[in-house]
Amino acid sequence: xxxxxxxxxxxxxxxxxxxxxxxxxxxxxxxxxxxxxxxxxxxxxxxxxxxxxxxxxxxxxxxxxxxxxxxxxxxxxxxxxxxxxxxxxxxxxxxxxxxxxxxxxxxxxxxxxxxxxxxxxxxxxxxxxxxxxxxxxxxxxxxxxxxx
Amino acid sequence: xxxxxxxxxxxxxxxxxxxxxxxxxxxxxxxxxxxxxxxxxxxxxxxxxxxxxxxxxxxxxxxxxxxxxxxxxxxxxxxxxxxxxxxxxxxxxxxxxxxxxxxxxxxxxxxxxxxxxxxxxxxxxxxxxxxxxxxxxxxxxxxxxxxx
DNA sequence: CGACATAGTCAAGCTACTTGACCATCCCGT
DNA sequence: ACGGGATGGTCAAGTAGCTTGACTATGTCG
Lengths: 148, 148
Known about the structure:
2 copies of one chain form a homodimer. In chain A, a hairpin with a 7-residue loop joins β1 (81-85) and β2. Helix content of chain A is 66%, strand content 7%. A two-stranded antiparallel sheet of chain A has the order 1-2. The first copy, chain A, starts with a helix and ends in a 10-residue tail after the last helix. Chain A is globular and about 55 Å long. Chain A has 6 helices and 2 strands. By secondary structure, chain A is mainly alpha-helical. The interface between A and B is large, with 64 and 64 residues. Chain A binds a DNA duplex through α4.
């Protein structure tokens, strides 16, 4: 594998990732959820099961807890989540999704599924599964946030 | 394909992309080029063949020409590129890489090749080619800049 | 019970972008 | 040839999303 081929592969990967995020975001907006940034989606993914504290969210997103707290301010103000007292730790607060937050998370899943279906049309279902398998083995715990 | 599987694939793709960029950046720094952000690498790729104008660079990067101009200021100040008069258009300037800029671009290619070699160890050469083929067909002209 | 650790917030600062305004030069129809 | 709109580039100011630093409240452990 020549260096230039590695660059071509890298560029294709980054282009695909950028395209995916852009189209998911567009799909979420098209479903009626405005003022939502892609980063919010990653937060929703962490909050969805049972809620999370600000600190847990910060770790998940790879940012400081102050930044996570600001993000929570934002999604609370927009009605997607709410701060509740934490059962069993009076210092902490449990951030949970509101009904609208859940609806937005579902919208993001639908949008992602739509994009991936498009890939299936181009590649075929089998190759999409191969793709998923490859990626899962390469970077099972890669960073969610981009560094560029 | 269920929605949750689409999300898993999306997450794997973004994790891989994030990991790739982080490791290329680390590789470039390890080769002695400091103060270089990943965005600079995308600029280098556009400047490498024959140079480019600020406006062309802005289109390539998906930012305003003011932002591209600021980025050029930065890499000029750091010695990676220089502004030259444009042959045939007195309004424009041709931004070209310096020798150090070329060296940095080569370092990025080496770092990328190193990461991709790691993928080859995990997946096998054949599957890496399949991966590259899939990605190239999915988003041949996706955005270079992340939106999240 | 006292000392240190941890959850969260407030405040200020930084960086990489944006929008808006502007000048110099090019191109093209009259 | 020339006048007017398009284009290339820069300067200036504003913004969003992060950072670091300082602080309070609560938990944990010897």
